[in-house]
Amino acid sequence: MCGFAQREGAVFAKYQAGLTGWEFGRGRGACRVKEIESIMIGPFEDIVSAAGAGRRKAVISLAICGLSFTILLTLFSAPAPALDGADQRMTSPTAQLPMFKDPRTALRAGLESYHAGAPGASIDALRYAADGGESLAQWKLGRMYADGDGVTRDDSKAFDYFSKIVEHFTDDDPDPGLRSTASAAFVAVGLYLREGIASAKLSPDPERAFDLFRYAATFFRNADAQYNVARMYLEGYGVKKDVRQGMNWLDLAARKGHVQAQAMLGELMFTGAGGAPQRSRGLMYLTLAREAANAPSEQWIVEMHDKALASASDADRKAAVSMLETYLKRHD
Prior knowledge:
The chain is mainly alpha-helical. It folds into two domains: about 250 residues, Tetratricopeptide repeat domain (Serine Threonine Protein Phosphatase 5, Tetratricopeptide repeat, Alpha Horseshoe), CATH 1.25.40.10; about 70 residues, no CATH class. It has 16 helices and no strands. The protein starts with a helix and ends with a helix.
């Protein structure tokens, strides 16, 4: 996500201000999911009538790679080793492991090194912090291994680091500064479980993936999770197929400015796949998504919009423009 570097800095500002320890609330778990879900999901007709109430905040990535951090902090520079140099150092019997006062100090040192442009040099410090229970270090290592950023790409290691966060926060509330990190970890693990990891001989587990997506979608209200819950309902993968439920969840994500959710919801409304067609509103959502679809992986949104626009009547287009103008005025 584009704002993760800023949140990362905010977390450490809190650390430096002396916010130590966790403020957990027990009793979270699968039993709470259905309670929250029942509150959030109302009749589809009510949700659709309020569509467009959300404000676009950012283009949110479709896959795990879109959860990467923006490098903003430049503190010092150190020569970066080869991609797998960090792994080799850890296995060398003569390797000198830096000494850290505690895991939090190691976390800060690792991120300073990373943001200074030496991701490979940050591995030892981040591992020390991750082994000491620092969730942000676990997240950062998971992203680095998932992206091949400073290390050789290893989805199995990425999955393991993300899973540590999920295990920690399944029943406990994260500190407010770590909610985004925790919810993103649930989504990351869910995506891995949805498809499986062939290199690690991890078979797909769509039911477990759905549970993780739904937990993050309800408890954390994570837009990526809501989008993935919707996809699984629409596909009938990991859960019984339910187009209306899928559209409900798409609407929740679309209100938060989730581009892929807006595109998919717009297509379903325009074609009437979930009930009576709402061509003007569907075209409005497709237009919103089209404006933000810049990545090569989002070409499907461009094509979907162009196809709908070509088949829309003049009345559909005029009504869509009017709806779009109203939406933008509300959120200027």
